[in-house]
Amino acid sequence: MRHSGLIAGLLAAAAVVLALSGCVSRNQVPVARGEDNDDAFCQAAGHPQGSSAYVACRKDRDVQRAAAASRADRRQRDLAEDMLNHPVR
């Protein structure tokens, strides 16, 4: 009888790992409204390609994208932790 409890626990752990594996494999933030073209964005802002303003614009876009990815990762970790700590909800 003790083996069936162990097996049930292992199956539950495997289900949790499988459910969270999709979250871990995500490595990019979805791009909405076609804002993925940094070159076009910075040139449309009036910064000619190769200028220092253009380089600063591209760096700002990179920083914004990295911050958005970091926030999304943090939200996902918080959600996973909340689900593990409160499985009844």
Q: What can you see in these coordinates?
A:
The protein contains three helices and no strands. It has 89 residues and is mostly helical. It has one domain (2-85). Helix 2 (38-44) packs across helix 3. The radius of gyration is 22 Å and the shape is rod-shaped.
Would you report the number of β strands?
0
Based on Cα principal axes, name the global outline. rod-shaped
As residue ranges, the low-confidence spans are: 27-32
Distance between the termini: 29 Å
SS summary, helix count: 3
Please summarize the sheet with the most strands.
none
- Our estimate of the beta-strand percent is under 5%
The helix content is: over 70%
Using only C-alpha atoms, the radius of gyration works out to 22 Å
Secondary-structure blueprint of this entry?
Elements: H1 2-25, H2 38-44, H3 52-85
Helix pairs in contact: 2-3
